[in-house]
Amino acid sequence: MLAGKDILLIIGGGIAAFKSLDLIRRLRERGAAVTPVLTRAGEEFVTPLSVSALAGQKVYRDLFDLTDEAEMGHIELSRAADLVVVAPATADLMAKMAGGHANDLASTLLMATDKRVLIAPAMNVRMWDHPATQRNLATLTGDGILTVGPNKGDMACGEYGPGRMSEPLEIVTAIEAALTDGPLKGKHILVTSGPTHEPIDPVRYIANRSSGAQGTAIARALLTLGARITFITGPADTSPPTGAQVIRVETAQQMYDATLNALPADAAIFTAAVADWRVTDASASKIKKDGSGTLPTLSFTENPDILAKVAQMTDTRPPLVIGFAAETDNVIENATTKRQRKGCDWIVANDVSPETGIMGGSENDVTLITDQGPEDWPRMDKTAVARKLADRIAQALTA
Ligand code: CTP
Question: What is the pLDDT of residue 372?
């Protein structure tokens, strides 16, 4: 299963680094190539010579190594692999990853990669339990980073508890699972997400409260099932999923153009909260108040309905087109009409009345409407909704 796979292995500075030497051996025994990266702190625990001897290739250590840049730049290094593994992932490396730092080779590679990342945390039990580490872990998991361990047990520092790095064979199993092809392998799925911003003038715009959380969670769940994702996002609060092709847009018109450009696709999921109107002739310079008490008047033009346009295409219509219906009244009735009016296959309806706390919150309460009628799902967090929807999509596309 690992034969022919290329693993970029980042070895952090912890006592568990000695186990990474065995990990390299186990991976190579199974036919994988290992490209090792050693942090400065990692060098205090294992030598570059032993790492490179076991890996059978040079060990990368420095961000500003001109020879390496001439041979293979850090961007390329981070993308040539099938999977990036961080073992041991120290508290410091996890903090850097969660904070988006790029101040050495390891952290820069982790920021630049477009591949999945698996971390094997290892640290003292108190450091693991520390709220900062747990906060960073939650951020990393939310970003789609995979984890293995840590295990509970006696630690090198004499304490007992969770913090021991997983054993090399456990990490090998996690690597195999991360590289396993899911049911959506070979399928291209387009996801729109977030709000759009419609300019009034160069400094002002009209926006909405969408955070992009549900769209990001859906894209992540589909990535986990092996799909290739084009993620077209407006200016959202949530960071886009690792491993997707991300296209950032501002306006509805840009989102529409990017969507057409991304076709053909096997499925398209429109989770974006697209502004229905844009300001006609947005001003090229800042609108000033002139002191006369006369207020500016804005006139609006309707934006393209991206979902409806794609659902009604005759040539490149994706076989499965899914819309969302954010409603405040008569949810099922309005969403059922919306499904017919827009011509999509499924519509995911939800009640976004302020008292539900759904818009901008972490939970969602949805009804899936298909040609079989409405199907009420229990209230669950947005990640669980995403997983359930991704499973349904996989069933539909592989039936
Ligand atoms: N949508 C879209 N392009 C637009 C407007 C909406 O692609 N210009 C998509 C959304 O991504 C969502 C679905 O259409 O999947 C429904 O969006 P919603 O805002 O609920 O519907 P509206 O078209 O605005 O209809 P209404 O004004 O009746 O609520």
Answer: 95
287 Cα to the center of ligand 1, angstroms: 29
Say which DSSP state 168 is in.
H
Same fold, 6-180 and 188-280+298-398: yes
CATH code, residues 188-280+298-398: 3.40.50.10300
Domain 6-180 sits in CATH at 3.40.50.1950
* pTM of this structure: 0.69
Q: Would you give the end-to-end CA distance of the chain in angstroms?
A: 26
Nearest residue to 221 (alpha-carbon basis) of 369, 69, 383, 374: 383
Residue 304 CA: which ligand 1 atom is closest?
A: 8
> Ligand 1 centroid to 186 CA: how many Å?
29
Separation of CA 343 and ligand 1 centre (Å): 12
Best of 231, 270, 310, 339 to mutate for ligand 1, by most ligand atoms within 8 A of CB? 270
Of 53, 132, 157, 177, the catalytic one is 157
Domain ranges of the chain: 6-180, 188-280+298-398
Q: How confident is the model at residue 307 (pLDDT cuts 50, 70, 90)?
A: very high
Could you tell me if the CB of 232 is within 6 A of ligand 1?
A: no
For residue 319, the model assigns a pLDDT of 98
- Alpha-carbon distance 58 to 48, whole Å? 9
Ligand 1 neighbour 311 (Cβ under 6 A): no
**Omega prior to 378 cis, within 30 of 0:** no
Ligand 1 atom 21 nearest Cα:
325
Strands 373-376 and 277-279, sheet pairing: unpaired
For residue 79, give both structure tokens: 């993308």
What confidence tens digit (pLDDT) does each residue in 4-59 have? 999 999 999 999 999 999 999 999 999 999 999 999 999 999 999 999 999 999 99
Q: Is the pLDDT of residue 174 over 90?
A: no
Judge whether residue 68 has pLDDT over 60: no
233 Cβ below 6 A of ligand 1: no
3-state secondary structure of 121: strand
Q: What is the pLDDT of residue 43?
A: 94
